[in-house]
């Protein structure tokens, strides 16, 4: 009887630990989604300092086959230049996220929309899916490591 009670208590303890881990992952997943939404808001409202704060210093943006931005300095130049177009607008809606078992890496995905003036002076709008890879920082915040 004593062994059965010990086994039952051990099983209850293991279940609580496992439950705590899944709760932590769920909490971090929600935090990651909130970060993505806050980042989108900063982009949409042209809050540049806030926008830039979501990228790691060595972040990479895969814009096209011919254009990859590496590092926050290149990203700052690109995002500043894009906003010289008076028709430029950008927004995105996160559709989902996942975090690693250790909750130190994650990704978000959704649909992004960019409006701009093309080379012919025409207003164009493009919508496409996006995927971002995030890394949790030592201060607990999430920052984008790779964007596509």
Give a short summary of the structure.
The protein is an alpha+beta fold and 148 residues long.
Write the layout of secondary structure elements.
Blueprint: H1 2-44, H2 48-53, E1 55-64, E2 67-70, H3 72-82, E3 89-99, E4 105-117, E5 123-136, E6 142-147
Parallel strand pairs: 1-6
Antiparallel strand pairs: 1-2, 3-4, 4-5, 5-6
What would your notes on this structure say?
There is one protein chain. The N and C termini lie far apart (59 Å). The chain is built from 3 helices and 6 strands. A hairpin with a 2-residue loop joins strand 1 and strand 2. The chain has helices spanning 2-44, 48-53, 72-82; strands at residues 55-64, 67-70, 89-99, 105-117, 123-136, 142-147. A 6-stranded mixed sheet has the order 2-1-6-5-4-3. The protein is an alpha+beta fold. Residues 1-21 have low confidence and may be disordered. It has one domain (2-147): Nuclear Transport Factor 2, Chain: A (Roll).
Number of DSSP-assigned strands: 6
Number of domains: 1
CATH architectural designation: Roll
Secondary-structure element sequence? HHEEHEEEE
> Helicity, in percent?
40-55%
CATH class equals Alpha Beta
Could you tell me the radius of gyration in angstroms? 21 Å
CATH topology, which one?
Answer: Nuclear Transport Factor 2, Chain: A
Structural class: alpha+beta
Strand order of the largest sheet: 2-1-6-5-4-3
Weakly predicted, low-confidence segments: 1-21
Helix segment tally = 3
- What is the strand content? 35-45%
What general form does the structure show?
globular
How is the quaternary structure best described?
single chain
């Amino acid at each position: 009887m004593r062994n059965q009670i010990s086994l039952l208590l051990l099983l209850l303890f293991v279940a609580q630990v496992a439950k705590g881990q899944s709760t932590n992952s769920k909490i971090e997943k929600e935090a990651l989604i909130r970060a993505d939404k806050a980042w989108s808001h900063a982009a949409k409202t042209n809050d540049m300092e806030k926008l830039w704060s979501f990228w790691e210093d060595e972040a990479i943006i895969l814009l096209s086959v011919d254009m990859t931005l590496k590092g926050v300095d290149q990203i700052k130049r690109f995002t500043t230049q894009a906003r010289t177009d008076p028709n430029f607008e950008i927004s995105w809606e996160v559709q989902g996220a996942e975090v690693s078992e250790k909750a130190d890496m994650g990704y978000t995905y959704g649909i992004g929309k960019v409006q701009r003036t093309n080379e012919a002076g025409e207003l164009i709008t493009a919508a496409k899916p996006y995927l971002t890879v995030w890394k949790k920082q030592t201060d607990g915040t999430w920052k984008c490591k790779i964007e596509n």
